Amino acid sequence: MFKTWTPQGPTRAPGMISPGTTDMTKRPAVHFPDGSAGSIYTYNTPIESGKNKGKWIVTAGITPDGHVLTEDQAYDRAMKSGQHLGIFDNEHDSEAYATFLHQKQGGFQAYKNGGDYKPNGEYWVNQNAEDITNGAKYSVSTKPPQ
């Protein structure tokens, strides 16, 4: 499955008008208090302005340094930096792609790194992802909680 992917992920998918620009082989591992972990935490959001106005962008809700973003923060970061996971012509395809990336990211990162899952940094946060994405304050540490 991953042989045709670039480091930024698939270059073709239903509804995709622009492939992602974020290097998915160098993602951090973020550990949450509930025992879950994440490396991208995808959002799909309508584009509000510019040449792709009305299209849908898939963004990463986890930054390379382990911070977890709200949907608005992830969108703003993507629009300013140009780093995204893909642009789509409709909501349905962008949502399906975001779910697909969420499910396949760990396997892809391991495949591209010679079979080993090698996160680009490990971080622990003191709030669960859903709480953070709803605006809860949190802290990030490079050491697991005691």
Task: Describe the protein.
- The structure is a single chain.
- The protein has 146 residues and is an alpha+beta fold.
- It has one domain.
- It has 3 helices and 8 strands.
- It starts with 15 loop residues before the first strand and ends in a 5-residue tail after the last strand.
Overall tally of domains: 1
Approximate shape? globular
Largest sheet: 4 strands, antiparallel
Strand content: 15-25%
Q: How many H/I helices?
A: 3
Question: If you average the pLDDT, what whole number results?
Answer: 89
Q: Specify the helix fraction band.
A: 25-40%
How many whole angstroms does the radius of gyration measure? 15 Å
- Helix/strand class: alpha+beta
Distance between the termini: 39 Å
How many beta strands in the DSSP annotation?
8
Order of strands side by side in the largest beta sheet? Answer: 1-6-5-4
So what's the oligomer here? single chain
Order of helices and strands: EEEEEHEHEHE
Uncertain runs: none
